[in-house]
UniProtKB/TrEMBL annotation:
Its EC number is 3.1.1.1. Exhibits ester hydrolase activity with a strong preference for long-chain alkyl ester substrates and high selectivity against a variety of short, branched, and substituted esters. Is able to hydrolyze ester bonds within a wide range of p-nitrophenyl derivatives (C2-C14) in vitro, with a strong preference toward substrates of >8 carbons. It is an enzyme of class 3 (hydrolase). Keywords: Hydrolase. It catalyses: a carboxylic ester + H2O = an alcohol + a carboxylate + H(+). Residues 3-216 form the Serine hydrolase domain. This is Esterase OVCA2. The gene is OVCA2. Coiled coil: none annotated. It comes from the Eukaryota. It comes from Ataeniobius toweri.
Amino acid sequence: MAPLRVLCIHGYRQNGSSFREKTGALRKLLKKQLELVYITAPLTVQTAATEEVPNVENNSVPAPGGNEEPRGWWFSDIQARSFNAQQRCEASLGLDESISAVREAVKAQGPFDGVLGFSQGAAFVAMLCSLQEQKLELELDFRFSILVAGFRSACEEHQKFYDAPLQIPSLHVFGLEDRVIPDSMSRDLLPSFQDPQVLIHSGGHFVPAAAAHRQTYQDFLKQFQ
């Protein structure tokens, strides 16, 4: 049985290569089920000592050997070109550019069976799934989504993505000790999906891939194989 091809959408301040490093355990855990393909967001994040979330806590510093800069999928603060998941804003910056980047990646590297996102990337995945179901992005044809530490965007212009519950099968993964995206924020995203499956772990802000999690991932994925 050929593995399912999954497009991987990294978190804020990560990039494709650093996210690949951080999901090594997941690739190993599900190597028979999944082929993970990583892309990098188009927006460069300015690194400064005064960023909202310390890099160490955010677990999003580029991994050793990651030669790309820290990137993001949109900025909630247009002036500062920065992002905070809890920042309420009217408008954001860069989302259209990021949607174009995904569209091009699907054209060049697809087709993909599913899409996986982490943190800001998971919030972005929910938006991509909404665009797909509204038939606003005809290149997108994901059969399932995996959202790790996802959340509802607090930006006013993004509320259109949450109008109707999404039909796409979804697995929502979040940690009870997550201090970057508290589990309450991930739970707030669940009603945006028709029949969300959930994997809760006891840890923090990372993609869990212990042996104890294998069965939940496999049970979710087997319906697409």
